[in-house]
Fold this sequence. Notes:
The complex is a heterodimer. By secondary structure, chain A is mainly β. Helices cover about 15% and strands about 40% of the residues of chain A. Chain A has a 6-stranded mixed β-sheet with strand order 3-7-8-6-5-4. Chain A has a 3-stranded antiparallel β-sheet with strand order 2-1-9, with no helix packed on it. Chain B is mainly β. Chain B has a single domain (about 5-150), classed as CATH 2.40.50.180. Chain B contains 1 helix and 13 strands, in the order βββββββββββββα. Chain B has one helix at about 140-150; strands at about 5, 15-20, 25-30, 30-35, 50-55, 60-65, 70-75, 80-90, 90-95, 100-105, 110, 125-130, 135-140. In chain B, the strands form 2 sheets. In chain B, strands 1, 4, 5, 6, 7, 8 and 9 form a 7-stranded mixed β-sheet that branches. In chain B, a hairpin with a 2-residue loop joins strand 2 (about 15-20) and strand 3. Mean pLDDT of chain B is about 90; it is low at about 5-10.
Amino acid sequence: MAQERLSAQQPNAWLLDFGQSIRAAVGARILLQIIDNPKLLDVPCTPPYCHSVVAWQGRLLPVMDMAVRLNGLPQTPHYLLVVGHQDSPDEPTRFGALLVSAAPVAIAVSDAQSCPLPEQPAGWGKFACSCFEHQGAAIPVLHLGRIFSSPPDA
Amino acid sequence: MSTTVLAHAAAGTNAALLKISGLRMMLPQREIRALESGDSIVQLDAAPHSVGWLQHAQQRCPVYCLSQDLSLLPAAPPERRACVLLSAGAGYVGILCDDVSIAAQSQEQQHELPLAMRLPGTPVLALMAMGDEGIVCLTSAEQLVAHVVRLAGM
Lengths: 154, 154
């Protein structure tokens, strides 16, 4: 019991700010690196929310702007977050990059904070796997598989 | 009119590197039917959305000018000095470039275009990292011509 209480107080998630009051979270082990002032490489004929890649450890990672994807408006990005995810335990880890407007904040989250997804922006149902209440706001947890491993929105 | 027929090497690793403003695109060298000077383009009676035409193999071949995001430009900037002729069905299509060079296409440097970036009909088939020089978009004559034909509504 004491151990559970202790672990619940440890930061186990990152709170991400995409600007325009759009926030979300990922698990603590999902976030691999924070890149300040990244060099983004544009790729033509790509969706407006994912139109560039970044070179990282011998890979070219897609750079996702969730503000554009959810709201249609680009944010003023300050950092790039490299994230790793597995679509299923048998699959290899896949990598991507998220643009954010502020440095991520480590927070502690427990199951007791579970809540419904926010109604706005409307697209959260597609890109979130769960949601929790944090300081009076509903914070969706990103489903990175759906965000990075699905083809562009129709 | 001067026409340069590029060496039609048997399926090798030689590729043609097309520079279009800040964009660099690579396609198999053997898929380029001819290389012409931009000065050879006839502007009179240009097909819709084209910047003129060239005579090649007893055919009138429309020439198109692309921007670095691969949209059609109504007029050619002065730096588009070269024109590659690509097969288009029974005919040919010309695409203006700033520069055309021959380069080795290394399989090791190639990266799949991330799934989240793959719009239907994109002419970008893969990406190639070029260190400090950024990236090269890999394409094929068939995909590039299909893209131009779609934009031009041919």
